[in-house]
Amino acid sequence: MKGVGGGAASPGDYVYFKSVVPLHKISIGSKLWRYYDFGPKVVPPLVCIPGIAGTADVYYKQIMSLCMKGYRVISIDVPQVWNHHEWIHSFEKFLDSMNIHHVHIYGTSLGGFLAQIFAEHRPRRVKSLVLSNTFLETHKFAAAMPWSPVVNWTPSFLLKRYLLTGIRDGPHEPFIADSVDFVVETLSRDDLSSRLMLNVNVASVGSLMLPDSLITIMDTNDYSAVPQQLKEQLNERYPGARRAVLKTGGDFPFLSRPDEVNLYLQLHLRRVGVEPRSDLVQGFTRNGSAGSSKDQKDGGDSFDNSGGDNGHHGSGGSDHDRRHCASESHHSDEPIPTSTMLANTVLELVM
């Protein structure tokens, strides 16, 4: 599989990502968790939660970009859970197994809803939220899927066809079209079934203890599978949240507009007090080995060597550390800009 946009393997694309970042798998109780955990362990993590149509892999552009700047990013697959209470308990156990007490969460679509549900019921563990193309309640989705009781017996191709009905038809620009293809082809039937159930189980987000100032709402302005009415409802719930508007990007802007998304995530993390440790990031090599003399002297423990904080070993990658050098230090309390060019100007001014 090529990276979104095609072309040969190079830093930032999917082929290169898979060659240097290990996929971890751990079983916690009856749940299998697949995840990527990359970046200095001393930095509070940003946990990325995908929507119905997504796995941990869909955030590979965020992992490569932010980790090279000294942030820690954990991208997860939502395991096969079938109701929201099961999600809350399972995610909490996952964080416990990683010895992670506090998180910042970036959730897209269903992932944003699950992030809010977790923040509502485990308020002490969530320090900030970035919510993208998401919603507060599932009633509309439940009404639109009356056949949900038989979802477990529905063939995979029908589930994917149903999923695609929510994605805009017609010609797309190349990067948006590639993002749709990338996401849809990574789905398995069982995972898709459980996520569809999470999306249609009737529930709504209650009050959050988290201040609006620690929430960023990042939406695309062209179209998405989430109805505009539900997006507006989310904005009304968090009137003091920061807004990051992408003029285009479709349902998966983290793939189709990664530069803008990564910049907004970086601005959010800076604003909520997460300091990157670019001094602990020294170099990716093509074979995935570390290129940091400092970290070798220090034992190389600033990045993940074990595949998990509690000794869980990942699969699909080397046990060596991987790092990349990128020194960028800046702060910003200004309103989030609405274009990459303007945002880069803001960053240069505050460096």
Automatic annotation (TrEMBL):
Query: Which InterPro entries does the entry mention?
Result: AB_hydrolase_1 (IPR000073), AB_hydrolase_fold (IPR029058), Maspardin (IPR026151)
- Record key words, sorted: Cytoplasm
Q: Where is the composition biased (Basic and acidic residues)?
A: 318-334
Annotated localization: Cytoplasm
Gene3D superfamilies per record: alpha/beta hydrolase (3.40.50.1820)
Bias kind Polar residues: ranges: 284-293
Q: Which GO terms describe its cellular component?
A: cytoplasm
Q: What is the recorded name of this protein?
A: Maspardin
The protein's organism comes out as Zea mays (Maize)
